[in-house]
Amino acid sequence: MSEFELGKTVPDFTLPTTNEETYQLKDQLKQQEGWHLIIFFRGSWCPACMSELDELEENKGYFDKKNINLVTISTDKLDALKDMALEHKFTFPVLADEEHEALKTYKVHYHKEDAPYEDHGAHGEPAYFLVNEKGELLYQQRQTSPFGRPSATELRKIITYITKNLK
């Protein structure tokens, strides 16, 4: 049985945040009501990622109203992520996974130095995991490149669809 089967509990992780705190998923599930949308992104250097994160920030009111807690994760350096979060004024948590712990646990694609094409060196690729208040997986998508990721509008449609069709 797959570790990431819909309805199954996702693995816990603990990572540093750009505001010098520690984020542990199991604690957040207990402390925050609602669902969690965990988004892995490539890094502060990625224009497609910055556009996506800016769009998420612009739509944060919708996610808050629907009780969806956004959290973003990158394999980028914590200092670079701190500068990025400050510059873009992100109000959702930005986590640094420099040791690739969450990336490996969540089976997110890692673009290694020996990949068949050059793409800014080694880094994690985009991935999305929507989990309910119990930490059970409701939706997942993993990318192998920066393109094809769902927009904020598409994520809103996915959330609406899942909400309407929950058993």
Automatic annotation (TrEMBL):
Keywords: Disulfide bond, Oxidoreductase
One term of GO molecular function: antioxidant activity
Active-site residues (renumbered): 49 (cysteine sulfenic acid (-soh) intermediate)
SUPFAM superfamilies: Thioredoxin-like
InterPro entries noted in UniProt: AhpC/TSA (IPR000866), Peroxiredoxin_AhpC-typ (IPR024706), Thioredoxin-like_sf (IPR036249), Thioredoxin_domain (IPR013766), Thioredoxin_ResA/DsbE_sf (IPR050553)
Domain (Thioredoxin): residue spans on this chain: 4-164
Annotated protein name in UniProt: Peroxiredoxin
Organism: Paraliobacillus quinghaiensis
